[in-house]
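The instructor's notes for this session suggest beginning with a concrete chain rather than abstract definitions. Hand out the sequence below and ask the class to guess, before any prediction is shown, which regions might be ordered.
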Amino acid sequence: QKCAFMNDSRMVPVLSSPRKVAWDREAPQVHALSHVMGCQKDEARTVYRAFQDPLHRHLLHKQNLEHIIPHVQKMLAREVKHEVSGLGGEGNSWTHLKLFDLVQRHIYVASAEALLSPVIARRELIPAFRDMNRYFPVIFAKFPRMFFPKFTAAVDEYVKIVSDPKYVENGSELVKIVEGLEASSPSKIRVNMMMLWGSIANSAPAVFWMLYYVLKDKNGAYESIKREVDRVLGPSPDFSVPLTLDKLDEMVEIKSAFHEACRMQFGAFTIRDLLSDYVLDGKIKEDKGGRPKKFLIEKGTRLMGYSGTQHFDEAIFEDPFEFKWKRFAPNEKGEAPRFKDRNGRPLLNASLAFGTGPHSCPGRKFIWYENTAYIALMVSLFDLRLTEEEKCSATPGIEKETMGLGIYYPERDVSIELRRRVR
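After discussion, reveal the predicted structure:
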């Protein structure tokens, strides 16, 4: 096998020799559905294709989001009340918590109930989800399951839960859509499990990294976002009434900070097999060595594009290794920022954390709104800060076991302090 790097600012493809198994645009999802979740192989691709259109319509159309997002806000408000109830009255002392543990609890329960079913949205199931998620990459890479009993036990537990008739009876519209597919019952169960993993696996670490970077920032990110939330919600917000999508859209600093955190902590590869010969003309400026501008990539070659090559290109992003919470926010005229590659060409998508074009994540709008609602809720109800020790500590490293499938997980949790906010 041969590998080569192409110095194009949008991506560094890794070229390798043709493989026996074709890797098309559906291959990663079909492989995860069959090999990881256990869907019958002869049904996996058919079920995946049948479910894609209704999934995209359900999660991307505004009229559906106007129903789903208020539901998830109610779940978030309910979960956050658990934190409030243990803090005592106003002006109380700070309570010590772990940030990732806090975020994952809230996101898991709210997302699972709003998108799937309350039967699966229980805090006591989070350890099983963690085991399933932790070993997802190695099972995806076809390591024998026998070496990962915690993964097998977690999958078996979820199969049992989703098989319960109450799961479908109390299920969301998405669950009803899956139930209506022309597929076997075991395959439908696996599709539900894939939806659970897809809706939470990247959401929880994305929200964690945003909150961590905002609290760590020394240029006023936390106070600026808090002012934005207060301006949009007013002095006495009533969280028993969900915020409209239009209200959430006004919180542009939160959305920008979220995109910025995802830019810095997204580590997936885009993998494709070429269906025909292709000449890559990147219009790269020749260096003194006179390197060619064009490259022939032969049919059948597998390309693996790493998003970080673009995300940390200093020609696209000024100070790419620094967190700038307003990087993706519109300017004073309401104009969205424009990014160009090192040859001056406009980039349609400067951030690749949610994919681009037909490969974009179908749940991207859901997590944007869920994150905005969650952050607005947290900064309205609480004062938040890193502990003194955490302020002096280095940014957490990356959990190696979960690398390669999306947003990185921190290798350690972060200590924060929280108290009821006094207005």
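Then share the key points. The radius of gyration is 22 Å. The beta strands are 13-16, 95-98, 269-273, 278-281, 294-297, 302-306, 382-386, 415-420.
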